[in-house]
Give the backbone structure.
Amino acid sequence: MLTTPKEYADSLDEAGKSWLTEFLQYMDEAHGDIPPIMFRQRPMFKVGQSYVLFSVAKTYFTVHTLNFDLIETLHDTLPRASFGKGCVKVKFSDDAAKPILKALIDEIVRLNQLECPPEVDVVPDLPYEEALVKAFSGSKDIWLPLYEALRDAARERLPAWVEYFPAVGLRWKHESTFADIGATKTALRVEFYLDAAHPECRPIKTVQTSKNRVAHTVELTDADGIGALLDWIAASYELTKK
């Protein structure tokens, strides 16, 4: 009887263990507020009325969910995958599918996770300022003043929203997430959602997360770019309220 995700991972061959370990680590880093449970000896993450569940077979990795409509949107972006009702199966050789599956997971969480009430400013037990410093710890601390400038400008421009602190980075939410913010050694990174690909916002990455939604990731390195970035964030704010 497998009772933990690690026991399940350790029971697999090298390729399967590598895929599962990467996705378990991604869940911990990106959605660390959602604890794993074991369901039929497979790791599952319950999100509202849905879930993300991982399973591994001899040659492929599978993501399961109750969000059947999201699975249907992946047929064009994952032409090498196999599909079932509520699941997508990807061969171990298809490394290009990994960011698409991770974007799928993010969208499942975004659509189903219970949101914090508007009057709540921060989810963790830490006071707000400590949580903010933690989000920009280490070499990322140089980007905290730029984040604060972006945050203050957004407060002035956008209607009510809250800051939420997952295991890594920050999220901006109203009824749902409309921006994810993190930092690297070289830039402040902001992800937002638009109804189609917009190369004019100069994204470093775009991912089609559903039929009418594309996640854009851009890098901000100075305050001069805040105004233009807020135009895109405002569009994401409106899109994600629909």
Notes: The helical segments are 5-10, 14-30, 68-72, 98-112, 128-135, 144-157, 226-241. The mean pLDDT is 88.
